[in-house]
Amino acid sequence: PSSPDEVIRKRLLIDGDGAGDDRRINLLVKSFIKWCNSGSQEEGYSQYQRMLSTLSQCEFSMGKTLLVYDMNLREMENYEKIYKDIENSIAAAHEKISECKKQILQAKRIRKNRQEYDALAKVIQHHPDRHETLK
């Protein structure tokens, strides 16, 4: 004997997304059996109409499920595209950061050279120029 949890799990798996497909199929089978055993033509016709109605409900549910499935596939593709765009943006940002670091190092080097040049220029200004020294 199965536990109630297993029975519920099995029913949910058979029922799909909970749209009542399992119940509709059982109803269709019962309607078919009633239609086969119907005595009068009027009773048979009403059973036939019920079967058509149940079939159209099943087809509608299946169509809806397929549309949702297609939508989910398109959304997955869309998310993959967004993911790739984000990856590319991150790679571009890393390149830009790397380039900026190089520019900062170059600017630091230039600043250091200018400071050294200014210090040398001040020292040189304290001494007389070559022309006066030769005099």
TrEMBL record:
Organism domain of life: Eukaryota
Cellular component GO terms, alphabetical: THO complex part of transcription export complex
Presence of the UniProt keyword GTP-binding in the record: no
Matches recorded under Pfam families: THOC7
Principal subcellular localization: nucleus
InterPro entries from the UniProt entry: THOC7/Mft1
Subcellular location(s) of the protein: Nucleus
UniProt keyword terms in alphabetical order: Coiled coil, Nucleus
Coiled-coil stretches: 76-103
An annotated GO BP: mRNA export from nucleus
Family: Belongs to the THOC7 family.
Function: Component of the THO subcomplex of the TREX complex which is thought to couple mRNA transcription, processing and nuclear export, and which specifically associates with spliced mRNA and not with unspliced pre-mRNA. Required for efficient export of polyadenylated RNA. Plays a key structural role in the oligomerization of the THO-DDX39B complex.
Name the UniProt record assigns to this protein: THOC7 protein
Gene name of the encoded protein: Thoc7
